[in-house]
Amino acid sequence: MTVKTWIANEFELKSSKIYSNPFEDVDLDIIFKKDDKILKIPAFWDGGDTWRVRFALTEEGVWEYYTECSDKENLGLFISGEITCVKYDGDLEIYKRGFVKTEKNTRYFLYDDGTPFFYLGDTHWNFAVEEFDEPGEFAGNLQCESHFKYIVDKRVEQGFTVYQSEPIGAKYNIGNGIDENDIEGFKDLDRRFKYIAEKGL
Asked: Is residue 71 within 8 Å of 63, Cβ to Cβ?
């Protein structure tokens, strides 16, 4: 498998067990190693017997990976191997320069490579309820295919670097914990944030 620096990728794992409470019954992490660099990333339950881990590798080269699972008998959640990471060759700054960070005694944000990052954004309050694949009621007279995408695209066109949001009206209810009924709501947000990320915000 070959991936590009700073781009989100995903592994899907199939559990050999079904847990009554996946968030309490098992812990699952994936470890990526390259020379002296180690990335430890938690996996998440995605309904039924499916677990996923999303990751972005931070430098070129061959990385070793393996999972650590608290349930030693669940062979479906143990994977290992190698993955090759090559340099991102696109035009988006966030993937050319790396994640945004802060440094001690520095009063501004930085990309991972040290380039200053200018934070310019406002809040898209209705992003979780606006239609993703059709105009819908929020589009008004804009004659756009999707009001959600229109708002994201407009911010990119205007030079924004940050997309701010709050999941008001999101299609899940975690007041009594997380269960299968909430998964579809999370997946709906996933596709929205994927679109935002692919636009470089």
From this structure: no
